[in-house]
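FORM 7B: Structural annotation worksheet

SECTION A. Query
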Amino acid sequence: MKRVGLLATIVLCGACSSDLPSIQSFTASRADVARGDAITFSWRVSGAEALQLNPRPGTVTGTSVTVNAGVGGDYTLVASNSHGSVSATIPIQLVDIAQFAASPAEVLSGQPVTLSWKISGALSAALDGAEVDAVQGTQQVNPTGDITYHLSARSAGATATATAVVRIGTPPVISSFTAMPNPVPRGTATVLSWQAPGAQRFSLSGGDGAGPAGGLHSRRVRPLADSTTYMLTASNAFGSTTQDLVVVLTGARGTSLVYSPPAVGAGEVIRLVQVLAPPSPGTHVDLQLVATRDIALDGIALDLPFDGSVPGSRDGIARASVSLPGIRFDGLDFTTGSATPAAVGALPGSGPLAGVLILGMAQKPAAAGGPAGDAVIPAGAPLATFGLDLQAAGGTGLVFDGTTGDGFRLRLRTRAGDVQGTVAVGRLEVQ
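SECTION B. Predicted structure
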């Protein structure tokens, strides 16, 4: 009974073993490689329904496969069928330069640069032919020109290489710096333009428009001196360079401000008139917004561009300025309630409203302590009064022209909504 049992066991194991796949051979074209080198694995297998080569490429067919070495260690061929699997392993030695870098990668000539590296699987390493640590290390260099550094790492049968590039940086060079137009008609604007290859930032000094320009390559300026020297500074990480540009003015200086009142219109609600016009033109005018008829108002706003000779150019801002103490408002209760008056008057010299005379006031809401209703403005009553002084350096020409009906904006409001009506504005020029 014991012998029969033993024979049965042998027969069962023999049947199990004979049904497994068989790997007759498993070879590699090379077993010592650098990262990226090609390796061809070949095999002879029988009885397999599926083949797997790990860690890469995974499922395979046929009798060979070529892979580019990406990892080292054991490469295992697994042959399997419904009865089980068998495997064979080949160890692969991989030499790899995991890191080789220059920091910083761009410097001034002669400045220090640190080369650093990390290597695995190497027996020796060389930096441009000089032996260095085969695992990791750093080395300081001081390049004086653009240069490429070479690192090699060697095992018994393979060599890995890597490069690190260092470039020599230089301060920017200003290739052009111009003004268009130049000479500039007195009181008008010119556009400064520049080019500076390699620059990251720009700034201007020496006149209006002074200050940082960021990465912009132009700026509109309005010089007032007979001769203005603008200085452009172009900068990058390696230094800066400057260049001067002289802008000169042409044309006569202005001597007087002359206001011509607007013609009487049927639909006007408000007129801009001159207060106490002198017998002869002078360097100062007082202007006033007055109601042309009885009207109830809760708020008023007027934007009047000082356009100059070219509509929309706002060149005339250089010809006149608001005189002290500024703009006086009347007619509406804009102070009752909170401490901040609900009124504004300004002539900005820069920004999106540069050269626009801004007038606005409104009654405080009843909820904030203001009046309960609209203000009643009788005909002839002033709403805003302001003086303008001549800027002689601005030259002669137009300050503003409201006779065309274009360029300025008026808004009138009551507690119930907008009021329909127009403002009549005359013409102010420098002679």
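SECTION C. Observations
The radius of gyration is 43 Å. Helices lie at 2-19.

SECTION D. Sign-off
Analyst initials: ____
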